Amino acid sequence: MARHSSRREFLGATTLGAAAFAGGWSWLGRLPRVSAAEATLRGIPASADRVTSLVRLIEETPREQLLDEVAGRIRAGASYREVLAGLLLAGVRNVQPRPAVGFKFHAVLVVNSCHLASLSGPDEDRWLPIFWALDYFKSAQADEQRRGGWQMPEPPEGRLPEAAAARDAFTDAMNRWDVEAADAATVSLVRTAGAVDVFHQFAQFAARDFRSIGHKAIFLANAWRTLQVIGWEYAEPVLRSLTFALLNHSDEPNPAENDLPADRAWRQNEALVARIPAGWLAGAADSQATRDLLDAYRNAPPQAAAEAAVEMLARGVSPQSLWDGVFVGSGELLMQQPGIVALHGLTTANAMHYLWANVGDETLRKRLLLQSSAFNSHFREAARGRGDLSPTRVDDLASQAEGLTPSLESITAAISSNRGQAAAELQAWLTSGGDPAEFIAASRRLIFLKGRDSHDYKFSSAVLEDYGHISPEWRDRFLAMSVFNLKGTGDRDNDLVQRTRAALHA
Predict the structure, then answer these.
(1) Range scoring the smallest mean pLDDT among 7-11, 252-256, 334-338, 418-422
(2) Nearest 5°: phi and psi at 284?
């Protein structure tokens, strides 16, 4: 009989899989052990002096020496949160989120993903994703220097709007896509408004257009989550970088003065929200509505997908059933065309759900939910532009799993050689009572050991978190589809593990 964990059970499950991987990891004990509670402690602020010193160290130390230097600072008393703050600030100061919010800028986008991976792993592994991100920053910094050596300019102190006008000035500048005015308004807003208010202001613009394949929403969600850990006093440079990113529109004309495809769904959704009735959050779960939404994602253009979502809400379907469609539809696209576009469908869904769950304005929540549906269709259109999609659908997993009796070891091995087989085996294993927390723990450990790219951390942190956001009926199939971008036991180890081990032994 299948074991379906409740969300409470899932989130409270202990991390498993240590026995399979622990043999070569004792070297991490040379750094102070960090508990998950210590890594998120907000009562004691990070030391501003130590953070400033760490930022300089991270910026100025050659890549081949950085891990040794940071390890020395940690042994001398630098905390996990101080290192995390130094890493994020070095990224936004030295890596430009242009011409697209991605590529080298993943050195910033991946910081929260590495932090989430650290929190979800065992205490003894806590430092490894952070050391990976430190090393990755140095490669991005070098790439930026080859392109001209951009660094964040000083704040425009002489042009800041007054505190009382900061919110309106920010909204006006963002609506006009005016970079200089928005930068000045951002500085004033961050200095004079509360953190929650600032988050809400940015959330109105992070998902308004389908450019940079979802990275704008990802940047806001990840930046906000990291700032909650390191402290709001470090927000100004982070949000200046975010403003610059949100106003990117590549080589297109000013979106404020043109009707461009990337902007249409958000504009349409402004009118559609009026059709969502009062009490919409208390709608009834409806798995058939989820299936109907999946059909819309497969065939409908973005605006039509948003219209399908609003019709379901209007007839009393729970938002949870719509989010099930968003997540599972993104997973199905990854199964049909593994690669860069589809994996961003899942990381964007994770960010959009986070924004939706954390903004307070009801109208904005409605627009974000409708925009998530539109984005799913946008991603499918983008994927079709890169090649054919496999005809495989999420419901095919059940038949593919019939007769299989896999083990966790066979599943993680198959990920490296035959992802379709791995998905079917994982579906069969979960259906027969396999513990999803065991697979999730093993997958995180494999990312620590074998992750070679920022997307390995971004993707795994997103999908393994989103397992807990999906209704029990759909969770196992969603997790099975995730193997199309996870790491298996047959993948090559990353060389950073060896370098980190050497730094910690020094």
Answers:
(1) 7-11
(2) -90, 145
